[in-house]
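WARN retry 2 of 3 for item q-0093 after timeout on previous attempt; input resubmitted unchanged.
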Amino acid sequence: MLYRLLGDTGKNVSTVGFGVWTVSTKMWGISDDDFSIELLRRAYDKGINFFDTADVYGDGKGETILFDALGNERSNIVIATKFGYDFQTYPGSQPGQRERPHDWSPAYIKKACEASLKRLRTDHIDLYQLHNPRMDALRDDDLFATLEELKAEGKILSYGAALGPALKPDRQIEEGLFCVVHRHTAVQIIYNLLEQVLGESICPVAETREVPVLVRVPHASGILEGTYTKDTEFAPDDHRSHRVTTDEMRQKWLLDGLRKVEKLRFAAQDAGRTLGQMAIQFILAQKSIASLFPNIYDAVQLDEFASANDTAPFSETEMKQVIDLYEHHFYLDHEALPV
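OK item q-0093 returned
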């Protein structure tokens, strides 16, 4: 495992982290807490020391399960969590994955932080992130004064913003650059071989400003793992089912995605990487990226991703080929759809 510095925390984090979302909600087909705890411990044993969670995951479970798994290793792990959604007033999953209301008031932020500290059973949070903020929150000086207050009290070591929820490029580029340039805070984005627009715009500026970037969905919700086929189906409560609710959505996300993967196989096979490892090495070629959080939901997959750094970094030639494919829509417009 390789490690990179997480901004002004002074802590080194594993370049492959663990997104606790998959093991603390039922949106990825995992409902066994013992299995989730075992997976988190296995990740730690593999050298993963950076865990990204949120207070809203499982309405608090995303934090309590992290303590259940690794509470005895608190001094050896780095915890990022998120705040902003008022899940206590609006508990439970929202229909159609709709967002719950945000509350960015100083009183709520302090209350949310204390609740997270209690659930995590720790005296500090390493990285405290605004959860899917909009520009009004990022421009709110009172909000950031509250975060500075929490930092001065030692309750958080640093803060940042996790952008989302859906990939809305124009809006999230503006939000990300504002965080990097005006707030000088860590920013978490969606970035992968199939969705590069945020990374293209934000990472170069973050590198210049020496601000860490974190990445989620590095495998494009699983397409870049090489396990999906044109016949893949998702359970109704699996969040990926919302990507294929119509034939048009299925074509654009799943079927076109599979065609793009075939174009990328050279960067896996020729370098002795799996597709999943290829996806990770592509992201880590960006120097501004401190860590990425794959969606991990079984031990075999965990072992594959944790060993990604054992494979060769992307070469300049590979990077040029991948960028060319992306810039030309993987040349799919010039091909007939498969029958």
